[in-house]
Amino acid sequence: MAITQISRDTPRRAYYQRKRAAGKSHKEALRCLKGRRRVTTFELFFDLVYVFTLTQVTIYMAHAHSGMGVVESLLLLALAWFSWSAYAWLGNQAAAPTTGPRSTRCPPAVERSSG
User: What is the pTM of this model?
Assistant: First the structure.
């Protein structure tokens, strides 16, 4: 797949050429190109969910003025951190496919008969 990405004039080809100009061999430059992947919208959405979760937990912590409230808040923060780090690890291990059948068009509008 990396070979087809450098056969056309794309930003990935320019990246490959920069690696070659920096002294990397053909195989090393292809490895760098293969390792470079973009973040998916799904991953960005989950990052946003975790940011929202952290803000909600900190708001809860600000309103919990007892020792038990602080302990609960720290437990919630630990659970959110653990789930986020596990999700980030999984996302790096099993990268989402960036190609495949995907509909980019909207479905055709249903026309009503005027009669």
Answer: 0.50
Crossing angle for the helix pair 67-93 and 41-63, nearest 10 degrees?
A: 170
Q: Tell me which residue of 88, 78, 77, 75 sits closest to 46, measured CA to CA.
A: 88
CA distances from 28 to 32, 37, 46, 62 (A): 6, 16, 32, 51
Return d(Cα 96, Cα 98) in angstroms, integer.
Answer: 6
For 21-58, the pLDDT digits (tens) are 888 887 777 777 665 566 778 888 888 999 999 999 98
Task: List, in order, residues 6 or more apart from 104 with CB less than 8 Å away.
Answer: none
